[in-house]
Design brief:
The protein is α/β, with parallel strands linked by helices. It has 2 domains: about 140 residues, P-loop containing nucleotide triphosphate hydrolases (Rossmann fold), CATH 3.40.50.300; about 70 residues, no CATH class. The protein has 7 helices and 10 strands. The longest helix is centred in the C-terminal third of the chain and has 16 residues.
Length: about 240
């Protein structure tokens, strides 16, 4: 049985204006991601990784080409439709955590559910923090948490609405090697439970540990698409 495609990217192009010059950030990028799979996007700084996953998450729009997530055309969707996709079907993890400093760990996780008007936000938030190993940190504020603990809170927040896909931008970029490994193992576990995972990373440990699929970008162009086990180049 063939697993359905959850994300399809075809002939994607993204340009920016720099004075009189037009800069190609992404050029003719095409790939598909199947439900329940895991995929790492790698490449040197400036290769277009962050822009690519931002477009896949509906945070940016492409200049040309198409992006379909769960049957919806990202480039044609209204802002309201994109908001519904982000709030209901996609969880996003940022490199710098993006936690609200005035809220506790539990309150940070609850925010997306409360925005959706769900009445079980507190219970769901507590369950997720327990799952990511922070049962004892529910009432702590971000400043009282280590970097790894803050990223775990961010992961729990991204999962609060049970997304079909988890998209991460350099999820271990601000963490030490030991903590990075813990976050890698957590993301692998989330994927093994059935959530599709797409992440941009320069961390070779993620590529080696996932051993699933790697997309390599160079100068905005997709140059390699292969299994993580076969991918050996380090960025």
């Amino acid at each position: 049985m063939v697993t359905p495609i959850i994300l399809s990217v075809e002939h994607l192009r993204k340009t920016f204006k720099s004075g009189e010059e037009t800069v190609d950030v992404l050029s003719e990028v095409s790939f598909a991601v199947h439900e329940g799979s895991a995929c790492a996007i790698v490449g040197p700084s400036g290769s277009g990784k962050t822009t690519l996953i931002a477009i896949c998450a509906g945070l940016e729009r492409p200049t040309a080409g198409s992006v379909r997530f769960d049957g919806v055309s990202i480039e044609r969707a209204s802002e309201e439709e994109l908001a519904q996709i982000r709030n209901g079907r996609i969880g996003f993890i940022f490199q710098n955590f993006q936690l609200l400093p005035s809220l506790t760990a539990l309150e940070n996780v609850m925010v997306p559910a409360e925005i959706r008007g769900e009445n079980h936000a507190r219970r769901r938030g507590a369950e997720l923090l327990n799952q990511v190993g922070l049962k004892h940190r529910l009432k702590h504020y971000p400043i009282q948490l280590s970097g790894g603990e803050q990223q775990r809170v961010a992961i729990a927040r991204a999962l609060v609405h049970d997304p079909a896909m988890l998209i991460a931008d350099e999820p271990t970029g601000n963490l030490d090697p030991v903590t990075s490994w813990e976050i890698i193992q957590l993301l692998i576990h989330i994927n093994e439970l059935g959530t599709t995972v797409l992440m941009a990373t320069h961390n070779q440990e993620i590529v080696n540990a996932m051993r699933r699929r790697v997309l390599a970008l160079e100068h905005g162009t997709l140059v390699r698409d292969e299994s993580g086990a076969a991918y050996e180049r380090e960025y």
